[in-house]
Design goal:
2 domains, about 500 residues, alpha/beta, 3-stranded antiparallel beta sheet
Length: about 500
């Protein structure tokens, strides 16, 4: 080996040592930076205040569980603690917004962004003869709990039992699609860009609603002719705005509603609003960024009900319109689609001209009086605008109007029904509102003891054909024989 080879190897060895020294230095510097950062983050996760509610998802977050020896042994306590810390990360909504925006920037779409909704599958024809259970086997989500706890057994189309065939009117209602539309599929939700705006649609899996119809028939049997029962089922927005190219993934809600109507006793009035809303689908009757209909859509539903019941009903121009700009609803939380967050809408609600002559009373879900209040609540954050109506779902509400006709209405609803009562302040002397998911008393006893004359079941289609329908039979059979005491009577004027 000559001197040149020796010198070359010596220099190569020195270079390798130098490189290793630089790499070691960088590793030390990285540790000196990252370790303190992780320690700081860990400390902040402990000391920073934890949120109690997600404005994006419109739900209450997990709470720290109460410690008991039994819950600790069973593992329930430790599991609850883990859920609490996972669900209540400080600045949770801000971090989710950043994450959604980052993913949208790079065109990243992940199933992890969407909770409670399954992947879409092609729907099958509804066959009442074979579908004896009458219900969709799709996964459910509750109208307002992690949705409407919302949230209701909402639409998911996986392994569901839907429509037989699209009716002519239903086919016509789904022809909003155009060459401009851009569609992305997100686990049972499609996000459609049309006419310069984004709209999120929950696909409907279908079902014949046998459980719902049977429960209403049982209520009619228990209450007799002293209480007139009405059924009003609201279609999802997907009934009207699903592009033709995705109609195979969306069952006909009109078919499901007609299936339910065919099973109801002849003395129960089915208020079919599917065609009525279809006539107004070019108006803003459904939110684009939220899973609910708009107060305008609820107005047309209430108007149809009033006509079926032979009630006095006021025209929309007699109401005061109230606008709240910058509303972004639940569908942003469900999809994580940053386009929905950027494309906010106006939340418009309508207050009747006799609102100052009406009194609203609030009760717990077992009808313990909590005090007077307003039916239309002011909300500090427009993102919670749907809470304008009664402040939400987990209470019983009674409205005493200035109408003197002896008529008392009991509305049994999910969150879709929240927007209806305000349009009936000129139609009934008293209106009671209970949520089918939370009410703890026996509904038959309640109707009898409160001298109810009319009973309106008002809910969205996925509640009527999904798991929420099971709650109706529970309401009929639970807590029988209790005396109903109205603690608010002493405060009535």
């Amino acid at each position: 080996m000559d001197n040149k080879d020796v010198e070359f190897k010596r220099k190569k060895g020195l270079n390798n040592m130098s490189r290793k020294g630089v790499e070691h230095g960088f590793a030390v510097i990285s540790l000196m930076i990252t370790v303190p950062v992780f320690i700081a983050i860990a400390i902040l996760m402990i000391v920073l205040p934890r949120p109690e509610k997600s404005e994006i998802e419109k739900r209450k977050l997990a709470q720290m569980p109460e410690f008991t020896f039994d819950s600790y042994i069973s593992g329930e306590y430790t599991s609850g603690v883990t859920e609490y810390y996972d669900d209540t990360v400080p600045y949770r909504d801000n971090l989710k917004n950043v994450g959604y925006s980052f993913k949208s920037l790079f065109g990243i779409h992940t199933e992890d962004e969407v909770k409670v909704i399954g992947k879409p599958s092609v729907v099958k024809p509804l066959n009442d003869d074979k579908d004896k259970s009458g219900e969709s086997s799709a996964p459910s989500k509750d109208e307002n709990s992690k949705l409407e706890s919302q949230q209701e057994s909402e639409s998911s189309t996986e392994n569901s039992k839907p429509e037989e065939s699209k009716t002519e009117s239903s086919q016509e209602s789904q022809k909003e699609s155009s060459k401009e539309e851009e569609v992305t599929v997100e686990n049972g939700i499609i996000v459609v860009k049309s006419n310069g705006h984004y709209r999120a649609l929950e696909l409907f899996g279908g079902g014949s609603g046998s459980t719902y119809a049977k429960a209403l028939n049982n209520f009619h049997k228990d209450l007799g002719d002293s209480v007139k029962i009405y059924s009003l089922i609201a279609p999802l927005a997907s009934e009207y705005y699903t592009p033709d190219s995705y109609s195979d993934f969306n069952a006909s809600q009109k078919d499901s509603i007609e299936s339910i109507e065919s099973k109801l006793d002849k003395d129960i009035v089915s208020v079919d609003i599917t065609d009525v809303l279809g006539e107004h689908k070019d108006e803003e009757i459904y939110f684009r960024t939220d899973h609910h209909w708009t107060p305008l859509g609820a107005y047309y539903a209430a108007q149809t009900f009033a006509k079926a019941a032979g009630l006095d009903f006021k025209e929309l121009d007699t109401y005061k319109k109230n606008d709240m700009e910058g509303f972004v609803g639940t569908m942003y939380g469900f999809t994580g689609d940053a386009n929905l967050n950027k494309d906010s809408e106006v939340f418009s609600y309508y207050t009747p001209d006799n609102i100052d002559k009406c009194m609203t009373y609030y009760y717990t879900t077992d009808f313990k009086y909590t005090g007077k209040g307003k039916f239309f609540n002011g909300v500090g954050d427009v993102r919670s605008a749907y809470l304008t109506f009664m402040g939400g779902d987990e209470q019983v509400v009674k409205v005493k109007t200035n109408v003197k006709n002896g008529k008392k209405l009991l509305i049994v609803k999910d969150s879709y029904g929240n927007a209806i009562p305000g349009y009936l302040f000129g139609s009934y002397e008293e209106i009671y509102v209970v949520d089918m998911r939370y009410f703890k008393l026996n509904l038959v006893d309640f109707a009898k003891q409160c001298k109810i004359t009319d009973m309106l079941f008002a809910m969205v289609s996925y509640s009527a054909v999904g798991d929420n329908a099971d709650n109706l039979e529970n309401l009929r059979t639970q807590a029988k024989g209790k005396k109903i005491v109205d603690g608010g009577l002493k405060d009535e004027d």
